[in-house]
Amino acid sequence: MKDENFLKENNARHLWHPMGHPRDSLENPPKIITGAEGVCITDIDGHSVVDAVGGLWCVNLGYSNQAIKDAISEQLQSLPYYSAFAGTSNPSAIEASYAVREFFAEDGMERVFFTSGGSDSVETCLRLARQYHRLRGEPTRTKFLSLKKGYHGTHFGGASVNGNNRFRINYEPLLPGVFHLPAPYPYRNPFHETDPAKLAQNIAAAMEDEIEFQGANSIAAFIMEPIQGAGGVIVPHETFMPLMRDICDRHGILMIADEVITGFGRTGDWTGSRHWGVQPDMMSTAKGITSGYFPVGAALMSGKVAEVFETSDADGAIFHGYTYSAHPVGAAAVVACLSETIRLDTKTNAGPRGTQLFEGVLTLAEKHDIIGDVRGGHGLMTGIELVSDRASKTPLDAGTVKRVHQVTYEAGAMVRIGAHNFLMSPPLTINEAEIDVILNALDAGFAAA
Q: Number of C-alpha atoms within 13 angstroms, CB side, residue 287?
């Protein structure tokens, strides 16, 4: 590693950082993270904090899982790369596909298409959804429905179904034929409905109305996160996803569950869909599939979808893929990570630790008026909406949000800013004392406001 002075002098001088303004990075240099152990990260100045973000919703097993590191190292020695395009495969890819299929069997998933990450996985699901209908003799089904506040990555397809204009406006026009429904967000919604169950019914009615207006035979798929992550940790009512599933079934629309964040135990179950008792037709996954140790994602297909492709004529060929699909090193990381995820039973720890974090923030809300809404309570996902006035729900200004974030970091915890929200998704291996560190750091940050 280059010396400290070199790193600080060149910080953000040549690298554009995702999800930020280049000028802001120059004026406010990013924190340089140089090490990590357990659930903690350390910056270049030697300051160590609990990583309440889990890298980026992904380091489910913490930073010290030797089994995954060893699997990556061993695979590099034998086969560092080979293509998995039609005609060639590799042992790790075969083993990983079996392991993933077994992991998601209860969700009805039977086929795996490996990608390089979550955005790739969403893109794959969208494209194959259109092809599925074409193979069934319904080529007019090309449109997509999704939810406002939803996040589905950064490719043109994913950005098109995204429900947050921050990821859309500067890149429009995007994919035509995408229509957004209200989010299951009791704190803010166009129905002014605070009852989550009634809100679910309102959105279901809006979906039926949109399908009637567009024509069911024009819609390929509906995509949703079982719990909306980047949109602010928006937890729907327990009836919401089953309602959406029923509507999709009645109108011949595929349901895509975006499990990039919610998969692999984060919600307190192995998938968010399972948490709500729903089997989707497709799933997009990534993040926890390797705990962030290697860039891998996967698009998963149900038996219903697989059968249409595998019994079709030449049009069933999948002319879609990525150079690093089923990368042997990534596949080895997948096998090791899934084995460790099951061995450590991380979903079981995510439940009580998530409750501790959620209830701890609720207690802080009694003390700090800038906390407008607290969302979570289902595994290790918690969102805090910051406001300058609770009565009007006026979002807290960006400068104050950054100030609170910095003080929280100085006090011992890294949290993620999402507009005027603080988002938390710590490693699923976190313990009770480490959750307390996060809560104490948040308390200090809110006090600084």
A: 30
